[in-house]
Write a structure and sequence with these properties.
Low-confidence stretches: 1-7, 475-485
CATH class of the largest domain: Alpha Beta
Mean pLDDT: 76
Number of helices: 12
Strand order of the largest sheet: 5-7-8-10-9
Helix content: 55-70%
CATH topology of the largest domain: Heat Shock Protein 90
Number of domains: 3
Length: about 475
């Protein structure tokens, strides 16, 4: 409570209300007039005019020199009327009255001067405190902001509040002032990095204070923020370059491995063919080798092109109504024609509606998933189930392979990623799953994976029912093709 009382008595940069000062002067003068009566038994009455000095000092300190002088005059008149004979009337020709007034006036002048000085120092201290708080806020907002434009707007708002103006703006580069705004240059070494714009209503002393105290802090914070932005840009650019290098390395690794094998097979088959002595069986065997190797090359090139178009974002998508069952059957047929080595068991619900999208892209996505499942199933059947699940159609592709470790579940969809557990004879390019996810997400769907080591893997494809149409009843041929092996 004592601290609170002292804070209320402390001088402010602005004086208290003048009505309060009038009440203090009148009340203090009245109390001091009454206090002189008992004090008259202790000292001569003519020497007690000094009692009025207390109210004069308080009034002069808190409300200024002029109110102090008026209080001094009031005290001298009260002293003349109530205590100097003849009591009860004014005797302005009494020299004692004017001596009392002169003494109180000197006290008022000195107290007012000291009060103004203390008030100026209090105002300056308060302004410096605001400027220190502003520097702290600028240090937090500018170098720590995620977006420079947002940080500049917030810093300008806080700066306007600290200076006490209606508005402020911080612009990058050079900006000129006009009849409404005054411009302060912000520099970093010898270069102009920004401009502080404040209202032109600022006085000369306020402009000098802004230039001397605020501009240096602001320009150092802005320079630090710009340097930080440059460093972040360099970090992002470095990360992009590193990622690009990693992609190039992965592409070269894939090309060197996946292209070399079929090329070697083609060259070997071509070399084994002797145009003079080769028989029909040798030619047929070489033809089969060349066709298989060329097919592998064609599929790899197609995957590389698909991935390139997906990453570039310029892959065109046509929209058409299609039957999911037909797309699944076509994907199974394409994978089986490539010699997947596994049987596929399809189970498709009869009530699936027609879907809307690009059936060709979906077929390539599902073919990549089926090819991946067949590769890891080691000849065991792969189950494919399609059914309605709320507002989506869900396709589950279940293999009986070795499963995927939890640490790899988020990485298997990365381009060119190959599991460390894959042996040297693994023929995958590391592109199929990335392309499958890209095609499915392009059509508004999503792919997730569930797997436990040693218990197989399940890829789940969910497709939206937007603009879905009821499917026609299955024909006997299609009904019989629901289970393929």
């Amino acid at each position: 409570m004592r601290t609170h009382l002292l804070s209320r008595l402390r001088l402010r940069d602005r004086p208290p209300p003048y009505l309060l000062g009038l009440a203090v002067a009148a009340g203090g003068t009245a109390l001091e007039t009454l206090a002189i009566y008992p004090l008259g038994h202790l000292a001569p009455t003519v020497s007690l005019a000094v009692v009025y000095a207390l109210t004069v000092v308080v009034t002069a300190v808190y409300w200024g020199t002029l109110p102090g002088l008026l209080t001094a005059l009031a005290g001298a008149l009260a002293f003349n009327y109530f205590h100097l004979p003849p009591v009860g009337r004014f005797t302005l020709d009494d020299a004692r009255t004017w001596v009392a007034f002169a003494s109180l006036a000197v006290v008022a002048l000195m107290a007012g001067l000291l009060g103004n000085l203390a008030r100026d120092r209090a105002a300056d201290a308060e302004q410096r405190r605001r400027e220190a708080d502003l520097a702290t806020e600028l240090a937090r907002v500018l170098p720590g902001g995620s977006r420079l434009d947002v940080a500049l707007a917030e810093a300008a708002q806080r700066l306007a509040v600290a200076i006490g103006v209606s508005s402020a703006a911080i612009e990058l580069g050079e900006a000129a002032g006009d009849e409404r705004r005054v411009a302060f240059a912000l520099r970093d070494r010898d270069s102009r990095i920004g401009t502080l714009l404040l209202p032109a209503t600022l006085g000369a002393s306020e402009r000098a204070r802004v230039a001397a105290r605020i501009v240096p802090t602001l320009q150092s914070m802005l320079a630090a923020s710009l340097h930080r932005a440059e460093l972040q840009a360099e970090v992002v650019e470095t990360a992009l370059l590193r990622r690009s290098d990693e992609t190039k390395t992965a592409v070269l690794r894939s090309v060197s491995h996946d292209l070399r094998t079929p090329l070697t097979a083609i060259l070997t088959a071509a070399t084994a063919l002797d145009p003079h002595s080769s028989g029909r069986s040798e030619a047929e065997e070489a033809r089969a080798v060349v066709l298989e190797a060329a097919t592998r090359l064609s599929r790899l090139v197609e995957k590389l092109l698909d991935l390139s178009r997906l990453q570039a974002g310029n892959l065109e998508q046509r929209s058409a109504s299609y039957s999911l069952e037909d797309v699944l059957l076509e994907a199974v047929a394409n994978v089986e024609s490539d010699g997947a080595g596994s049987a596929f068991r399809l189970a498709v619900d009869d009530d699936l509606p027609l879907l809307s999208g690009d059936p060709g892209q979906l077929e390539r996505a599902l073919a990549n998933l089926l090819e991946n499942a067949a590769r890891y199933s080691a000849g065991k059947p792969v189950s494919v189930r399609a059914h309605l699940a709320g507002e989506r159609v869900r396709v589950r592709i279940i293999d009986q392979g070795p499963g995927i470790r939890a640490s790899e579940l988020d990485r298997i969809f990365l381009p060119f990623y190959r599991s460390p557990s894959d042996g040297p004879g693994h023929q995958g390019s590391g592109l199929g799953l990335a392309i499958a996810r890209g095609f499915v997400e392009l059509g508004g769907g999503r792919i997730t994976v569930e797997s436990l080591p040693g218990q197989g893997t399940t890829f789940i494809v969910e497709l939206p029912l937007a603009a879905a149409k009821p499917a026609a009843p299955p024909t006997p041929e299609r009904r019989g093709a629901r289970v393929a092996s």
